[in-house]
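Quick one, T. Sequence first:
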Amino acid sequence: MRINKLVINNFGIYYGRNEFLFGNKNDRSNIILIGGENGSGKTTFLSAIKLAIYGPLFLGYKSINNKYMEYIRDKVNIYAIAEGINKASIEIEFTIRNHGEQEYYKVIREWKIVKDSLKEYVQISKNNLILNERETEEFYHFLRRYLPPSLFDFFFFDGEKVQQYVLDSQFELNLKEAFMTLFNLDLFDILRDDLFKYLKQENVFANLTEEQRQYTQIEHDLRNQENVINRLEKRIAELKEKLKDTHVRIQELEREFSNHGGMIAREREELNNKIFSMEQEKKQISEKIREITASLLPFVITKKLVQQTITHLENEERVQKYEMLKDELGKEALPRLLKSLSHKFHITDKDGKEASSSFMNEMSTQLFNLLKPVGINIDRFQMIHGMTKEQKHAMYELFQSVQQFNGKDIDRYFLRMEQLTHEIYNARKQIEHSLKDDVLREIVSRLSEENRLHEQIKHEIESNEIKLVQAKKFYNDLVNQKEKAAKRVHKAQKDGNIFELCQKLNIVLTRYQEIQIKKYLGTVETYFLQMFNSLMRKGQFLNSFKIDPYTFELIMLNHTNSPVFKHSLSAGETQIFFLSLLWALLKASKQQIPLVLDTLFGRLDHTHKENLINRYLPIAGNQVIILSTNTEIDEYYYQKIKPYIQQEFLLSFNRETNQVEINHNYFFQKVRN
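Structure tokens:
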């Protein structure tokens, strides 16, 4: 897939028509560099691409619903609405290679506000021909098969979140899903489903087709689950032996350290615990400061405006009460009351003439004037906010918080942060001072490494034990299901030849799928190892890299054939790891999917950045979209990356026009004529 053009119109921060035109790859140029400071529209740019292509699937919905439309309504540009413009749209043009042929698609997704309702209109073209309703459904089916949203997300790299993503318990499942889709190996699952559907449609086994299908599937799942359980039990046993070894080595090093006159282990542990506790407190204080700064401080700065809003809300309530009272009294109650009184009392004017009617009119006028809210011109007053009861309550609470705000609290937070920093420094110095000679320092270095390894092994044991419990529960459920299915099948009348043929075909498909998975995984493993070691500052960092064909668990060994765990990688190393994996998947599958890299260089040192620019980016893919600030890719790295840039854009938000300005240059490049 290659994105050729993107047009964002009155969506999010983009006011008016904003066009991005991407050229074709030539020579070495494959990078689209999009620069911009925070808040300039980079995130909206990415959201617009996904929303245009997937529609409700972008948010995980199968079809348009209220939550999806609420999301869209919130994204319609506020300045466009203020100008009376009642529509927004996103237009995207992209190319997909299907069965060796280039297919050109154009999707226009438009939203119009009609009165209080929001409508979505979609037009899809293929090779310049507009698709009808049936062809549009076929396109969506093809898209979900070729490039589902989950696969698109897998190739979106966010340097700030990648470590959390890789360490997540769902990472292996995400990897497996991406792998199966890229290599079309989920096709075998589809074939099996189609076979069962065929048998059911033909009614070969009458009402028992479903039971027999379940029985065959359960047998297959049981075999796989047995393998999973065996591998997990074996791995846990190995890890527990390693844990014992590390525990023994730690005890020996602690005794050696104490014998050499260093700070005893208990004191050092107490100091380390104290340091950890103080660092956690610093983190909590930092979060409080960030929360105040982000949520309350803007309103404190604009306190007068908040006060004006509260005053107007109160006036709106007074006017609403007056209008309601006037409406209730003026239409029925007051005229009825005065009319009733006029029958009991004879009302005359100063000249003695009958004045009941004029008295009632004057009484009404005087009463309503008396009830009018003081200080408000009813005739010129405008209802602006129209808030609900809950919204008003929230506004009053905010105003109360603004009034109670005391800047001294923040001063105390910063003072405590400074105090904690000083105490942490002293505690660390105290630990360092206990290391009186090189021998002690060497022991502490070895001890730290053993403790780190000990914690890693414990973490992996806990993770695998959780997986084992889940695997055994699933296995027992399958055994019960198989027994029930066997009884149903045994009692049923059936054509044995067809059923046996189906079982054999199912086994053949499953076995062939397993062979293909192992074959392609071998290619991915080779490519990954090649790229990862070339990017790492430490050279031949890994000696072996394997992906389990059933669980997709990653097994890595270093140059001494010792295990390397994902949790032991630093933030920068995790980025290199994930980038290498993305490249290996694309390289092995020969698929063309845009690679989106956000905050690419955020946590990398100079050497890793140089390696990425020289060895990764030029071959990362046919279309690589990089989002960056001028501090991340500075002038030095811009010059390094420039030979590979196909297109460059600079986004900046103009506060005078309330528009995003799009220039065809990066921060350090002059505007092209």
